[in-house]
């Protein structure tokens, strides 16, 4: 059976970070979103944080009004954010954990510990036709709870794996990869749609694209950084090409685990 196509969502948060460093209107994250779509992005992701450190309310309204592709609204599960999401009506809402003192999202949402609060929140979004995604670590109990909460999508937090790859910690990278592989298998068996993101670059995006159950990657910080040197359109095209190379060799999670074990039978670093 052929694997489903792999979508690329481009996160434009850090275009707004650069704008906000100086104030004013430029660079404009909406313009960046339109350029990314023209170059091959399948959708746009933007995180409206409680402190508005990068994306602002008017950015979300303009993105929804002006881009011709789906808008993925990342946000914390708060009443203020729910109000904005219901008014904006994006294609999707991805619920993420948020601490004001963090530089970036540090881990997955604890849907097990917060299930009582999340259940009505998810239900309200589902009721108006907004697709809900939960940004979680690839842990069995979190995945199982996501399914119980009737969130149709999970996004696997890939940050720990990507960090270990970049830092050259082979044993940790292998352990984190195995967690992603197992998590993808479990989520698929639970009937969830599976996305992935956080810390992905060309190399890690190409590799995770080979995991056939994952249907969307959301990538931002690395791509905006690369765009400073080669331009956003070229960065999107290069990322798209990396993902396509990985997808051509896509395997199921079980096959991915077997292939990794064959490459590293003793679990050596």
Can you walk through the features of this model?
The protein has 269 residues and is α/β, with parallel strands linked by helices. It has a single domain, classed as TIM Barrel (Alpha-Beta Barrel). 51% of the residues lie in helices and 15% in strands. It is built from twelve helices and eight strands. The chain has helices spanning 13-22, 29-39, 57-66, 79-88, 115-127, 140-148, 159-167, 170-189, 202-209, 221-230, 232-248, 253-263, and strands at 7-11, 43-47, 71-75, 92-95, 131-136, 153-157, 193-197, 214-219. The chain has an eight-stranded parallel barrel, surrounded by eight helices. α6 links the parallel β5 and β6. α6 (140-148) packs parallel to α8 and α8 (170-189) runs antiparallel to α12 (253-263). The longest helix has 20 residues, at 170-189. The model is unreliable at 100-105 and 260-269 (pLDDT under 50).
What's the helix and strand layout?
Layout lengths: L6 E5 L1 H10 L6 H11 L3 E5 L9 H10 L4 E5 L3 H10 L3 E4 L19 H13 L3 E6 L3 H9 L4 E5 L1 H9 L2 H20 L3 E5 L4 H8 L4 E6 L1 H10 L1 H17 L4 H11 L6
Parallel strand pairs: 1-2, 1-8, 2-3, 3-4, 4-5, 5-6, 6-7, 7-8
Give the CATH topology: TIM Barrel
Count of alpha/pi helices: 12
User: Total domains, how many?
Assistant: 1
The residue ranges in which pLDDT falls below 50 over 5 or more consecutive positions are 100-105, 260-269
Largest sheet: 8 strands, parallel, barrel
Structural class of the helix and strand makeup? alpha/beta
List how many beta strands DSSP finds.
8
**What's the mean pLDDT score?**
91
Strand content: 15-25%
What portion of residues is helical? 40-55%
Order of secondary-structure elements: EHHEHEHEHEHEHHEHEHHH
Radius of gyration of CA atoms, rounded to a whole number: 18 Å
CATH class: Alpha Beta
CATH homologous superfamily designation: Aldolase class I
Strand order in the largest sheet: 1-2-3-4-5-6-7-8
Distance between the termini: 34 Å
CATH architectural grouping: Alpha-Beta Barrel
Rough shape? Answer: globular
């Amino acid at each position: 059976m052929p694997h489903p196509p792999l979508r690329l969502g481009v996160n434009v948060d850090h275009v707004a970070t650069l704008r906000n460093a100086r104030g004013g209107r430029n660079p404009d994250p909406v313009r960046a979103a339109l350029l990314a779509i023209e170059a091959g992005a399948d959708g746009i992701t933007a995180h409206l944080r409680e402190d508005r450190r990068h994306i602002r309310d008017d950015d979300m309204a303009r993105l929804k009004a002006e881009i011709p592709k789906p808008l993925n609204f990342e946000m914390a599960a708060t009443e203020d954010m729910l109000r904005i999401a219901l008014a904006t009506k994006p294609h999707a809402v991805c619920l993420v954990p948020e601490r004001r003192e963090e530089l970036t999202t540090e881990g997955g949402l604890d849907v097990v510990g917060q299930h009582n609060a999340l259940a009505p929140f998810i239900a309200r979004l589902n009721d108006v036709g907004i697709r809900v995604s939960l940004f979680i670590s690839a842990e069995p109990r979190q995945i199982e709870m996501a399914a119980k909460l009737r969130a149709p999508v999970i996004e696997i937090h890939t940050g720990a794996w990507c960090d270990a790859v970049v830092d050259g910690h082979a044993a940790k990278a292998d352990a984190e990869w195995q967690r992603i592989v197992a998590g993808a298998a479990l989520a698929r068996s639970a009937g969830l749609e599976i996305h992935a993101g956080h810390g992905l670059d060309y190399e890690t995006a190409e590799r995770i694209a080979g995991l056939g159950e994952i249907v969307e990657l959301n990538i931002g910080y690395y791509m905006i950084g690369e765009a400073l040197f080669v331009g956003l359109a070229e960065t999107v095209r290069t990322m798209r090409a990396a993902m396509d190379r990985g997808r051509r060799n896509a395997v199921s999670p079980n096959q991915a685990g077997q292939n990794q074990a064959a490459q590293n039978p003793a679990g050596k670093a």
